[in-house]
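User: Please run a holo structure prediction.
Assistant: Happy to. Please share the sequence and the ligand.
User: Here you go; the ligand is S-adenosylmethionine.
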Amino acid sequence: MPINRYIFPVVCELSIEKLVQGGEGFARLPGGRVCFVRGGLPGERCRVELTTGKKDFARGRVVEVLEKSADRAQPKCPLYGKCGGCSLQHLDSAKQVTYLEHVERENFKRIAHEELPAEFIIHQGEPWGYRNRARVVYLGDRDGHCRFGFRKQESNGVVAVESCPVLTPGLNDFLKNAKPPEIFRGLKHVPRDLELNIFDDGTGRVAYYYRGMPEARKRECSVSCVKIGAKQITSGASVFFQSNLSLLPRLVQSVREAVDEGIASGAATDEWLIDLFSGVGFFAALLQDKFRRVTTVERDSLCLEYAKVNLSGMGGVVENVSAPAEEWLVKNVVDVPATLIVDPPRTGLPPEALDAIVKSSVNRVIYVSCDPVTLARDFAKFRAAGFALKRAEGFAFYPQTPHLEMMFVLAR
Ligand SMILES: C[S@@+](CC[C@H](N)C(=O)[O-])C[C@H]1O[C@@H](n2cnc3c(N)ncnc32)[C@H](O)[C@@H]1O
């Protein structure tokens, strides 16, 4: 029967063929229509409740596993399937990287019509207790302590949380012990559903931030200092920062190697480092020692003060710009073979930014991405302008979820 004639919910038996982007299982309904199945693993036969029917595909969720994969695991968290995070807990932690590698190889072939290099690898860290940054919703107080929740899966609702197995011990401690008079000091009224950003600096000290926080409290409570190797990076709960501190040094090492290779090959120079989508100037601060001139460009003006601090006192010319990267690139023609790092949000590079880069004298781009799909899309446009993929690495920054951090090095 055509899927649009089903009366939902409908339950049917399906065979899961593979995992796809987003961590869903891929199956086919009788008649051949594609069905994306939440909670299904390759090789499994499952009873699936169909939840959505579109013209070309359907969506469903596993209600019973009839034939189980050897890689299936018991989800560790009681909120699995309720809260919006960690939707891959039903897959053995030790196997997640193998599956993600397969998904990314397929994605790249489908979107960029090219194979990822055979030597593409995914660096791994701890599967639990790794996440040093989170957003929680305040749900009022109980026995003098704050109650917090996470946003629910596919809805704006909130599910109460007492502890979370992917968060660091420091953040779990905050969830358990934070007291409203301390957290909301200086606030006359705490709005319903107030969201808090919480950030563990890697030592268990937790910074926090919420909209409407009094300025003095913001300076006192939202600022953090993170140690990466010998370097201290000032950041905070009010701005973007990477969320897997224990694996982050591995990404930094790969970026530093890529920079060195570029300079050694002559495709880039040590004359000018341009760090676009720079946040608090993270990559620039860790690479500044190699360059005579450094420019960071970031849209979020809150990051600017942090970037100034992080790039101060090291010599060389430093410019910290608060502007959209695409606007900066159009106004500032890059006419030397500079070293360029881009680390855009999930949406990838704005088309104007990509156009300006390929028209510039930049011959080598280090592209850090948290979305392999937009990365593959942007890669295809770079390739059309003469760039080739020189290096590809993955970083399992988000275990128990289908997300992956990637680094590509492109050169022409
Ligand atoms: C994935 S984060 C990377 C930040 C930084 N590279 C780091 O590692 O901490 C992306 C950053 O891009 C910024 N951003 C988003 N769109 C932008 C745009 N059009 N121009 C400049 N920055 C932008 C966001 O505010 C965010 O700080």
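The pocket of S-adenosylmethionine is lined by residues 240-242, 277-279, 282-283, 297-300, 303, 324-326, 343-345, 350, 370 (CB under 6 Å).
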